[in-house]
Structures are given as structure tokens and as C-alpha cells.
Specification:
Elements (H helix, E strand, L loop, with lengths): L7 E5 L6 H12 L2 E4 H14 L7 H10 L2 E5 L5 E5 L2 E2 L1 H4 L2 H10 L3 H12 L7 E5 L2 H5 L5 E6 L2 H14 L6 H17 L12 E4 L5 H9 L8
Parallel strand pairs: 1-6, 1-7, 2-6, 7-8
Antiparallel strand pairs: 3-4, 4-5
Bound molecules: adenosine-5'-diphosphate and deoxycytidine diphosphate.
Deoxycytidine diphosphate binds next to helix 1, helix 2, helix 5 and helix 9.
Amino acid sequence: MPESTIPVLTIDGPSGSGKGTISRAVAARLGWHYLDSGALYRAVGVAAGWADLDLDDAGALVRCAFDTVVGFRDDAAGEPRVLVNGHDATDELRTETAGAAASAIAAIPEVRSALKERQRAFRQAPGLVADGRDMGTVIFPDAGWKVFLTASAEERAERRYKQLKDKGVSVTLDGLLREILARDARDASRAVAPLRPAEDAVRIDTTGQGIEAVVERVLALVPGHGA
Ligand SMILES: Nc1ncnc2c1ncn2[C@@H]1O[C@H](COP(=O)(O)OP(=O)(O)O)[C@@H](O)[C@H]1O
Ligand SMILES: Nc1ccn([C@H]2C[C@H](O)[C@@H](COP(=O)(O)OP(=O)(O)O)O2)c(=O)n1
């Protein structure tokens, strides 16, 4: 099948809007592949930290983006794990420190270019669900279905708080809300591929909506797959 005919559904939105959760569930229901594009940016941020790179040294960060090897696999319990340069970095990648580093390096245009083809290579039969900030606008502008997920900043911070607490990570709700707002502002204001809905995206506000309800709303967009 030529690459361009392979179906893609994109799910973009700010931190904590539920992109990863909804995309994984929708991909499983459709039997399609899943791309967590944020994990690539987080992996470069974490690898840059391991190498002690300066977050202001754009040249070194671009080289790091080209050199960092990222692998995705499920463990024996079916939980997704992410390998960075061969090391299981799943837990480190999910910290707010890694999120902030990812957001900073993601503003460098050459870092984004370095990761572009790697993201497009995930477009494999029978289909792809891709989550991030610019999936519908830049990486897969020809996607058949585009979703932009939102939720109030307070609810997003509460979701993240609960998620990190469940993992035993020590955080405060106030601190998380501040970090989420700072990251949203940086992701939405950068010059290249800012966080914004594609013109043809369906916007879904998930504030007060359960995960299953959102999954059904997204699936209803894909002919033959709604409830
Ligand atoms: N509609 C929803 N209602 C309640 N909690 C949700 C919803 N969507 C996601 N969550 C929870 O919020 C947390 C963050 O979701 P996640 O998928 O990681 O968001 P994102 O990828 O957009 O940052 C997870 O613990 C997830 O289970
Ligand atoms: N397609 C993407 C995905 C992520 N990024 C950047 C900007 C985000 O703040 C960070 C982390 O993204 P990620 O989707 O993992 O973060 P959240 O789960 O939404 O908190 O990476 C990006 O610029 N473009």
C-alpha cells in the first residue's frame, strides 16, 4: 500500500488533555499503530540531560536529536515502555522535569526537522493514531481525521496530580498547575509548529467527561468504528 493511502487519525492538545490515554485506547480498538510524538521530544531532553548538554546550545541539541535512539515496546503486563539509547527511561520521561526540557528543546526548529521523518515512518498499515502538538497541522496534514482535545487547566493539573501520586512521585497541585500553564504558553507561542488546532480538527472539550465517553466520541468519527 503506498504510504499516503494509509489512514491516520491525529490527536493534538495541551498537557493532561488525555491525548495519550485516548490515543492508545482508540488505536487498540481500531487495531492501528500508535505514535507518542511527545515521547520523542522527551527522550531527546532526557538524553541531553544525561550528556550534560546546555539547553541553550542549539547545535548540540540538534545533534542529540539526530543521535538519540528511541524504542517503544510493551512489557509482559502489556504496559508501554520507552527505551532511550537502550535504557528503559519510561519513568524518567514522564516527570515534569522531562516535560519542561522537551518543551524547551521542541522550540528549536532544527530539532523539530530532525524528528520529522522519524514520526512519519510510524505511518504503517493498517493505520496510525498519532498524538502530540502538531500531528494534524505539520506532520500529517493529510490525516483523514483530526481531533483537538482540551480540558480546563485545573482539571488537567488534577489529572496529572493523581497520575503522578499513583506512581509515588511527590508533587503539589499548585506546582503542577503552574508548570502546565507555563508549558502551554511556551508550546502555543513558539514560531514553528505551535500548539493549535488544525483548521479541519474536531475540538472535544473533555472537562468533566469520562475516558470511555471521549474514546467513543473519537471512534464515532471513523466510519464503521463508532458504537
Ligand atoms: N477524560 C478523562 N477524564 C479523566 N481523566 C482522564 C481523562 N483523560 C485522561 N485522563 C487521565 O489524565 C491523566 C493524563 O492523561 P494523558 O493521557 O497522559 O494526557 P496527555 O497525553 O494529554 O498529557 C491520566 O492519568 C489519564 O488516565
Ligand atoms: N508533537 C509534539 C509533541 C510534543 N512536543 C513537546 C511540547 C510538549 O510540552 C513536550 C512534551 O509532550 P508530551 O505530549 O509528552 O506532553 P504531555 O503528555 O502532553 O504533558 O514535547 C512538541 O513540541 N510537539
